[in-house]
Amino acid sequence: MIAAMKRLFLLLLAALALLPAARLSAAAEEGRYAVAVGDVWFYSSASEEAKLFLLPDTYYVRVLDEGETYCTVEYQADDAPYKKLLGYCRTDALTFVDFTPARPYLRKQITVEYTLPDAGGLGSEEFTGVERTFVYYGDRYEGAQLYLYVLSGNVFGYLPADAPPEYERNTDYLEQTSGEAEERAPQGTNAVQIVVIVLACVAAAAVAVILLRGKHPPQKEREF
Which residues on adjacent β-strands are paired with residue 55? Predict the structure, then answer.
């Protein structure tokens, strides 16, 4: 009886040990995300001298490798006109989440109109202005001048601007601090939890059966 109980107990422990592995497996498949709250720099290399731009507030990077000082991350996706950008963020600047955000990257395009100089009497009104559209990634200040980090075709660069573009902020990461993020746990974890619960119920039932079998019925008193 004791040997059977030990075997059931070890089986239950093995099932519980699968739970963290399942969480890591699901996270690896879906990718781990971290949100930029406040001023979070995106770097071209793991160095303070390689700052490219400040990520849009409350939007996410996908973490490919988590280092002690810097994380290797990617921002945006290859979905024209958007282009995935590989880089780095400081680990201590990111807020990690355990769910896949519905809107991880800011989809923002800005249109700039360039006014051409007056060409005199032969100038045509149709050619006095040119419009060009850029994909917005983030911004930075150089001295007092604001620059937007943008993409045009396959070329990244800085565009001077008077003010940063307006955009809607994410709030889903706030739910994690209120306990609601557990509802967003990967489905693979839920399956393992179900298995563990079932095994626990089976083990409890088996132990009860073993105890009942080991209990001898009361003997009737002998009549003299």
Answer: none
Q: Cβ distance 70 to 91 under 8 Å?
A: yes
Task: Let me know: does 52 contact 105? Beta carbons within 8 Å.
Answer: no
| Count of other CB atoms within 10 angstroms of residue 184 | 15
Distance of CA 180 to the CA centre of its chain: 16
Q: Do 56 and 138 contact (CB within 8 A), yes or no?
A: yes
- Helix (H/G/I), strand (E/B), else coil: 10: helix
Nearest to 134 by CA among 156, 116, 119: 156
- Whether residue 68 contacts residue 91, with contact meaning beta carbons closer than 8 Å, is answered with yes
Per-residue buried b or exposed e for 74-86, using 16+ beta carbons within 10 Å of the residue's own CB: bbbeeeeebbebe
pLDDT in tens, 71-121: 999 999 999 999 999 999 999 999 999 999 999 999 999 999 887 776 565
Q: How do residues 153-162 score in pLDDT, each as one tens digit?
A: 999 999 999 9
SS3 category, 191:
helix
Q: Does 101 sit behind a cis peptide bond, omega within 30 degrees of 0 on the bond before it?
A: no
pLDDT at 191: 46
User: What end-to-end distance do the CA atoms of the chain give, in Å?
Assistant: 36
CA distance to 3, 135, 213, 214, per residue, from 210 (Å): 11, 69, 5, 6
Q: Is the pLDDT of residue 12 over 60?
A: no
State which H helix or E strand residue 160 sits in: strand 155-161
Question: Dihedral through CA 95, CA 97, CA 102, CA 103, nearest 10?
Answer: 10
